[in-house]
Amino acid sequence: MTFSRRESxxxxxxxxxxxxTARAPGAKAGAASASSTLWYRQPAANWTEALPVGNGRxxxxxxxxxxxxxxxxxxxTLWAGQPYDPVxxxxxTMLPKLRELIFAGRIEEAQALANQSFMAKPLRQMPYQALxxxxxxxxxxxxxxxxxxDLDLGSAVATTRFDTDDSxxxxxxxxxxxxxxxxxxLSVSGRNRLDVDIAxxxxxxxxxxxxxxxxxxxxxxxxxxxEGIEGALRxxxxxVTQVEGGASIRGENGHLRIRDAKAVTLFIAMATxxxxxxxxxxxxxxxxxxxxxxxxxxxxxxxxxxxxxAHRRLFHRVALDLGTTPAAQLPTDxxxxxxxxxxxxxLAALYxxxxxxxxxxxxxxxxxxxxxxxxxxxxxxxPWGSKYTININTQMNYWPAEPVALGECVTPxxxxxxxxxxxxxxxARTLYGARGWVAHxxxxxxxxxxxxxxxxFGLWPTGGAWLCTHLWxxxxxxxxxxxxxxxxxxxxxxxxxxxxxxxxxxxxxxLVTNPSMSPENPHGHGxxxxxxxxxxxxxxxxxxxxxxxxxxxxxxxxxxxxxxQAAHDAxxxxxxxxxxxxxxxxxxxxxxxxxxxxxxxxxxYGLHPSRQISLDGTPNLAVAARRTLEIRGDxxxxxxxxxxxxxxxxxxxxxxxxxxxxxxxxxxRTYPNMFDAHPPFQIDGNFGGAAGIVEMxxxxxxxxxxxxxxxxxxxxMGSIIGLRAxxxxxxxxxxxxxxxxxxxxxxxxxxxxxxxxxxxRCSLQLHAGTPVALxxxxxx
Length: 780
Hints:
Layout: H1 5-22, E1 37-40, E2 51-54, E3 58-62, E4 68-75, H2 95-103, H3 107-117, E5 132-137, E6 145-152, E7 157-164, E8 167-176, E9 181-189, E10 194-201, E11 205-211, E12 216-222, E13 234-244, E14 248-252, E15 255-261, E16 263-272, H4 284-294, H5 300-315, E17 319-321, H6 332-337, H7 345-362, E18 388-389, H8 393-397, H9 411-432, E19 442-443, H10 455-458, H11 463-478, H12 481-501, E20 503-504, E21 511-512, H13 534-554, H14 558-570, H15 619-632, H16 638-650, H17 654-664, H18 684-697, E22 698-701, E23 704-707, E24 718-725, E25 729-736, E26 739-747, E27 751-757, E28 760-766, E29 772-774
Parallel strand pairs: 23-27
Antiparallel strand pairs: 1-6, 2-3, 3-4, 4-5, 5-10, 6-7, 7-8, 8-9, 9-16, 10-15, 11-12, 12-13, 13-16, 14-15, 17-24, 18-19, 20-21, 22-23, 24-25, 25-26, 26-29, 27-28
Helix pairs in contact: 2-3, 7-18, 9-11, 9-12, 11-12, 11-13, 12-13, 12-14, 13-14, 16-17, 16-18, 17-18
Keywords: Signal
Domain Glycosyl hydrolase family 95 catalytic: 302-697
GO molecular function: alpha-L-fucosidase activity
């Protein structure tokens, strides 16, 4: 079957014309939203058209081919290399000179010294890598009709359907979090029978594919090397088939050949020898065999039910309705293609649902955190290594998690920070002679924490400190004292590192980081290195204040509280520059920076994700932040565009935020399968975009719940049900004619709350288990 570009364009044009003629003037929002389904009329021609399934550890990209189907496979611990420590033990002797050069403004010399003597060895970290492909060939199929492939975000099943002659074909793919496998169901109804040839392949090394019993295959191999670090992981992918309808099965040359079946079910288990960042002694052969033994004899239908139940327990906590228009009837790729010229509020809701789906599928307890591509990667050398970039991208992955009631999905991130504190303690001691722990701008499966990529990108010591704010947020939304006690040593360790390493700026007397940089922006004065960039000061204010709060709640470390408060108060303050902008550096270099429209807006950390800058609390700084956004421009790379949505929402600029969201949803920044286009693909834009939608509809800080702070006029009627506010409180919001109709608070903890609506407030004493309904009349 061939789908030509001309046919695709013609279908899109016809659908667009249908919208134009079918849309009634002033089509109403607030009607039933389009279902949470991505769907298409043709197979995927490339990877960014394929549909993702995942269970937090195993992932597959489903292409939906007719005569040949490809499932591109991932296992979240299959990275290049092995445990390693990249810190140069001799680098510490260069630190005093490096600081001296930076304070003296001799940036070129400082950068040259850092690149020569202070960076990690190797200079780059290990990449996340593809495991391989499952290829299904279907000989003898006639021409097909009624083709459709879709991804049901509510049940987490990707399905391909089509007809041939008098028969209907169905192919379903899911990733079970319960049974820890990928399951594929191939079936045909009518007179035809099912013929399929099955093969496993991998681009990795030492690959061997053999028969695994009369109806199975086993692929084994070893991971790749990178940057001089030898690959030492072993991995396996084991496949078993269940055949219905009296078919014949034959294995030959590492393939399976099935003929005359009515249905075939495939179960694929994958594992590596990874146990922990410092332990690769696992047994993938035994692990995959045990996984498949547990599902022996179980029907696909039961696994499908169990998968949907586990998925819906998380996915159905939140529901967003922004209304619908005829545009919602288009296939997903066509909706994206015409989104800049068609009113399609349900596309924003679908994008929001898709982000929640992707987070559930790529970050579950017991697995790895979502990386730069979440869980899905088809390369041995993916863009930016598909690592954890912790100067914004990893953090952005988790911005929506707490407010959309996916706190469990934060667990892998918390576990990664626990591990980074181990490796980061060695880095702090060896590189800086300091207590506590540090992580720079990137890390990988092996939890490397040294500065990488070159001083102009990686000599930035506050990545671990920023991650600690996520530890605190996870507590603040859940208010679990046992959890707080378990993560407090991580926060205190990060704080101790900066108590030992902050330097007194000889020009101002304030405490600053040195060496550092403002990610990832060259300032145009001979290099990137600097002392005390604005972002560092904002992150450290949060680190110190949140660690002080934690210690106070736990009744511990009185002396440390005093030290942290003193350091907090001595940090360099925010400054407004000669352009009226919030300065990015201690010096007013902004106007001289070579990229005025730089994608990073790191110095606006204090506005979002932090709340140190606000219209109410620091109006002059809020005006300066606004001026910075105007200078930088609204359109950037995918994730940077998403950040701008959040920033404008914090400034209560609803139309500006929505205009940027609309750009994010268009074909320049969203691929046909709704993956974010940096370009190329980075998943952080998906998560940042969803967080921006939340910011437009609800804010939550301290014990304040801010309702509809940046509701755009183009969403005049709608609802969002199940959002979470800090302090374990669920919030439902309904609005009509762009104004609040009612809000329902469902607290799990008793205590005071202030609810804000525009410039009005309502003070409440909430009681656990007792819902409270609010209408506009309650506010004064």
